[in-house]
Amino acid sequence: MIDFxxxxxxxxxxxxxxxxLLLNEVxxxxxxxxxxxxxxxxxxxxxxxxxxxxxxxxxxxxxxxxKTLQVExxxxxxxxxPSFIFGKNNxxxxxxxxxxxxxxxxxxxxxLLSLLQKDRKVLxxxxxxxxxxxxxxxxxxxxxxxxxxxKLTAYIFQNMKGDVFYLNNSIKNIAxxxxxSRPSLSRVLACWVEEGIITKVExxxxxxxxxxKLKERM
Length: 218
Prior knowledge:
Layout: H1 2-5, H2 16-23, E1 28-33, E2 38-40, E3 48-54, E4 57-62, E5 68-74, E6 95-98, E7 102-108, H3 109-118, H4 120-144, H5 148-158, E8 160-161, E9 164-166, H6 171-178, H7 182-195, E10 198-202, E11 205-208, H8 211-216
Antiparallel strand pairs: 1-7, 2-6, 3-7, 4-5, 4-6, 8-9, 9-11, 10-11
């Protein structure tokens, strides 16, 4: 358990012996989920601190037109709905289900409060986690009001290294995150290649050839 926990945001920067001492004070428990099984539905109460130990979970939001929007994939080591543990409206804002066979590590809220009181590093870590989640949701709100080209341009700049950018998800997953169809997103990419704005280097890897033209798309 220590090997897993020290890789999580909650215990970031803590030594093995420090984590071991804290584990003597609180009790984590684990639960497995099969592919497609729901962990929670929108509106359910968030009454535990949750870490993905293995596998991955997908969060979805149902839009007013009945379509579903994939918000994010939560991979091992990350928390689930950390910003909704406390506060007046501590309910899941989305549906969450296992993308594959997965496992969750749970901690009751009373035990979490005990951890926060006992170790300042853990307290700072969870505050940073709350802040990062708020910033992510703000980014999602920004995306919802932009065109495909504006969304794709922002995604490229977020994933650039030098003049190269990487598609960290499949075209379909990115399209779901953007709330657009896969063919529409593929057409924009193809047009940009044809215009010479970008070139494809290899699978999921592209090079920005004309950054000025790319910025015009924002």
